[in-house]
Specification:
Strand content: over 45%
CATH architecture: Roll
Number of strands: 6
Helix content: under 10%
Largest sheet: 6 strands, antiparallel
CATH class: Mainly Beta
Number of helices: 1
Structural class: mainly beta
Strand order of the largest sheet: 4-3-2-1-5-6
CATH topology: SH3 type barrels
Order of helices and strands: HEEEEEE
Shape: globular
Radius of gyration: 14 Å
Amino acid sequence: MPAVVSTIQPGQRVRITQQILQGAGTWTTMVEGEVVSLRQAKTGSWFAHSKDDRLWLDRLEIRLADGEVVVCNLDRFSRVEIVGGGPGDIAATPAGGADQEA
C-alpha cells in the first residue's frame, strides 16, 4: 500500500477517482465521502505464494453524504485525494504508487 494512502485515517474526507481502460477510451468515475476503514482483504481468487494462497486487494470503505457506504477496490488506476481541512491535509496519490496519465 503506498505511503500516502496508508496514512489515511477513519473520519477523513477523501475523493477517489478510478479509471477503467476500454478499447480506445477510458471510463472514469469519482466518489467522495468520509473514510470508514482502509484495509487489505483477501478475495476468493487463488494466487500462488501469497498469504493464504489468495489474491489480496486494498479496500477503502467510505460513507457518502447520504449515508450510503461504498467499498472501493484500489488499483494502479485509482487516485485518492484527501479533501477539506487545512493546507497540511491535502495530499494525492495514485493507489498503485506511480503517476498515471488521464
